[in-house]
Amino acid sequence: MEKKECCGCGDDVRLVLACSGGSNVGQITNEVAKTLDVDGQARMYCLAGAGGHISGMVASIQGAKKVLVLDGCPVQCGKMVMDQAGIDDYEYLVVTELGVEKAHDFRLDTNDVDRVTAASRAKLNGDREDKSNEQTANSYTSACASGERDRGGCCCGGDQAC
Amino acid sequence: MTKLQILGTGCPKCKKLAEVTEEAARSLGIEYEIEKVSDIQEIMKFGVMMTPALAVDGIVKVAGKVPSTDEIKKMIA
Fold this sequence. Notes:
heterodimer; A: 162 residues; alpha/beta; 35% helix; disordered C terminus; B: 77 residues; alpha+beta; four-stranded mixed beta sheet; 3 helices
């Protein structure tokens, strides 16, 4: 079997971390992060992992080309987690700053979700330069198996033969 | 004995990270053992999103890139 030449790829791993908090705005961040992942614009990753100081997660966040943190409200739990993990190079968005009022109501307004999604996409695609990595990542998860290089996967097809 | 683990499925960058890590460990003159972890499920237990990655005594120091020898020395020392 011919080995595929790859893993010099996966060079645009972008992560989105959502506070996913217990309010409408927290859950909007969760919905937006999922949408960005499904659309292939960023990979949703675990903010809780950074909060728990899981070394592999902190290192992965530090190694990503671009990171977007979504907080629901001015309590800024996501930002606090990043601060405590010693990570300061990321894009940031707070849902309430986009005019969504915080409430303990999980019947999310799709217009709000769409608006935050659009703002998040703009953050991800902004002019700000990506973090520099001399040599970057090969993401090994489902994106490899499905050949979704724009989601950080490589061309190994998930067969680990590369 | 310092335990060095290279997390990766065997791609060229994983091999490069292993080489650079060994070089760093040798130049430091430390006692070490190096393990290549290539099983996806085992890699995922470390929580890393990207490979290659280097764990020193079970703590992931870097993921998604191959640092220089000097940078790795600092991670190991």
